[in-house]
Write a structure and sequence with these properties.
The chain is built from 16 helices and 3 strands. With 363 residues, the protein is mainly alpha-helical. Strands 1-2-3 form a 3-stranded antiparallel β-sheet, covered by helices on one side.
Length: 363
């Protein structure tokens, strides 16, 4: 197998290096908070998943992204079948039946299906040869997103199910939304919100109330965001140092190696380190936007914008969670939080983005 030299010349090494630095920071933070505890195995698993993710990254990078678009219908249907299989034979973690076991490793198919949905939606919209979408096309695209989203909701994983929404919204806007459709969507959202509130479980409602009124349950549902804010604030400008943070080391902060790893990193590395990590995330976001603008075709631009929408949504929600600005939703910080499925899906997503970017000048 030979790789065109022009592709190597177009490879964005700084983009790739940013991903590696984020992953390294995540491994260091996970190691810091889990060593010497019953969670210490997370470090080894994260490194294993990182190696697997890099291998998948390189494989996906080798083949032209249009090949994936050609076979996306089959891949999408297989993804739906696997999500259905999870409901039957999957095992439950934290009340979510969303995991499949491969013996020595477990993974969440829903994380990988996000990437399939991005490509499927990009292909569908790319075939629309008009400046604006018609209602039937919006409905069809909505069904493409709704099918896996409902299956994930049936698994009990509302946080992951929500992450499909920004992909649909972002790509629909880019493909061309009429003003009247935007108004209809806003009205429909407003009408659905009360019904959605009634469908939420008690602890999910409590998390929303805890954000609006943090003092309502400081020792219950408000405990985690409160401890997270303490961790971030106590880091100061330069931080307390690696393995020196009290919130992370003494276990005051729950989920400190997964959803709230940014709070631990902020406590240990301080304001300067936090800005550095957010700066890397911002740089990757800018590279995605630039790659979308320079893409050689419509489907390439749509794929990248789907990745961008998913990536940015994860960052905003996770950062909002750790700062107590949005309800806890179980959404990890890309490349940093412990979790092999999330790590693998984001490396796959970035591989697609770099894939489009590398081939922008190649016939």
């Amino acid at each position: 197998m030979r790789l065109d030299r022009r592709l190597l010349m177009n490879f964005d090494w700084l983009w790739f290096l940013s991903l590696l630095l984020l992953s390294a920071a995540g491994v260091a933070a996970i190691w810091s908070t889990t060593q010497g505890t019953n969670l210490s195995y997370f470090v080894g698993r994260q490194v294993i998943y990182l190696c697997i993710s890099l291998a998948v990254f390189l494989v996906l990078l080798y083949f032209d992204y249009r090949v994936y678009a050609d076979y996306i219908t089959v891949a999408y249907l297989v993804g739906l079948a696997i999500l259905g299989l999870v409901l039957v034979v999957g095992h439950t973690v934290h009340a979510n039946k969303s995991w499949l076991s491969l013996g020595f490793l477990s993974f969440q198919p829903s994380e990988l299906v996000k990437i399939l949905v991005i490509v499927a939606l990009a292909k569908f919209y790319a075939e629309v040869d008009r400046d604006y979408l018609e209602l039937r096309e919006l409905v069809t695209a909505g069904l493409i997103v709704l099918a896996p989203m409902l299956l994930v909701m049936f698994q009990g994983d509302l946080g992951t199910a929500i992450t499909f929404v920004p992909v649909y919204v972002g790509l629909s806007f880019l493909a061309g939304l009429k003003r009247k459709h935007v108004v209809v969507l806003l009205i429909a959202t407003a009408l659905v919100l009360p019904a959605g509130w009634m469908m939420l479980k008690g602890h999910q409602k409590g998390r929303i109330i805890a954000v609006l009124n943090p003092s309502s349950d400081p020792h219950g549902l408000g405990y985690q965001p409160q401890q997270s804010k303490i961790a971030i604030g106590s880091g100061g400008f330069l931080g307390k140092g690696w393995k020196q943070g009290t919130q992370g080391q003494l276990g005051f902060l729950p989920a400190r190696h997964t959803d709230f790893v940014f709070a631990v990193f902020s406590e240990e590395r301080g304001f300067l380190g936090s800005i550095g990590m957010l700066g890397l995330l911002l740089y990757v976001s800018i590279r995605l936007l630039r790659a979308a603008r320079e893409a050689k075709d419509k489907i390439g631009a749509l794929i990248i914008m789907g990745v961008f929408s998913l990536f940015l949504f994860h960052i905003l929600i996770n950062a909002g969670m750790v700062m107590g600005l949005v309800p806890i939703a179980g959404i990890p910080l890309p490349f940093v939080s412990a979790g092999g499925s999330s790590l693998l899906s984001f490396y796959a997503a970035m591989s697609l983005g770099l894939n489009v970017n590398m081939r922008r000048f190649v016939n």
